[in-house]
Amino acid sequence: MENILTKVLPQEGGLEGSRSGVYNGVIGLLGLFTLVGIAFGLHAFYLGYHNAYGVSREVPWGVVLAAYVFFVVTSTGLCLVSSIGHVFGFETFKPIAKRSVFLAIATIVSGFLVIAFEIENPWRMAIYNIISPNLTSSIWWMGTLYGAYLFFMLIEFALLQAGKHKIAGMLGLLGVISGVAAHSNLGAVFGLLNGREYWHGPYMPIYFIVSAMMSGCATVILFHWLGYKINGWKMSEQLQESLRSVAKLGALLYIVIMFFTTWKFIAGLSGHPPGEYEAFMALLNGPFANNFWYGEVALGLVIPLVIILAVRARNITAMAFGSACSIIGIFVMRYDLVLIGQIIPGFHELNIVDLPHILPYAPTLHEWMVTLSGFTFCGILFMMGERLFRGHLSEDH
Length: 397
What we know:
It is built from 13 helices and no strands. By secondary structure, the protein is mainly α. The protein is globular.
């Protein structure tokens, strides 16, 4: 069968010659940053998180947890977007399946690396998850469901590589079910905390699923473009059409998230609900205003949407730039989501003496390096995937 992509050989061909030297150099640099980040995480174990991290009893979750949320959200989104083609049978989306499934695995594993240095005793989670399950705990369900999700995704990817697309589609459906369950449960970890008004409510699980697909669309476009640049190939018309469809879906999801965000703000500001009102004002014109307006709104939503509409979803390079902006903005969204729900003291409306209006938090070097290690490790997995799986060559099935 004819390959779904058309290969244009460079001077040395593929990743050979000087191209291979650049590839090895990038892998080495990413590996160095990953090891340094892991070293900082291990040092935090030794020092104690209360000394190494900027978190506190009042603000127990910081940028490391935000990075974990970012990675697992992106992984679920990649799973959902890739499933449109090879699970649910929409032909236009089939060419993106292999690389998208591999990226879903790479991002969830990177999320596990990061969360290992956020949980002070990560080995206990794996042990007691099995020998002492707590079925009433959202955190227990999160670990269990994400474990099942990773298991199904690994088998699905292996079957795709073996060309067994029908069975892979069945495993992909199990991956979609476990991924949606795990991700909505992650939203419930926030939404069921009735002591945190900014998070509390049924909105969170739904928002997490929709924003996951938005993240998945941006990641699919950017990393397919990068993959073809790395390999020195030219995209076939089928793959370009597939990425155009992903971009159109992404444009719709940007608009949906704008709609969600607008009504969330209207609900949070109407009637000055205690705790929630102050949190939203911190985003609108408080200490998180730059994050919200420049990061979440401009980079995360407006710029990628405008680019997709301006090029009518036809210029892959322009859309890859917009997707890069979107991914940066989405990380800021996750950071703001995690922090805003914690920074307003629970009893602030009682005007307790010496209780700050907004609780302080600033990420430390240890936290930034652990977070960076997650991104560099994900980059290593992506680069290795391009070489080990020959750029995820696919056949029209």
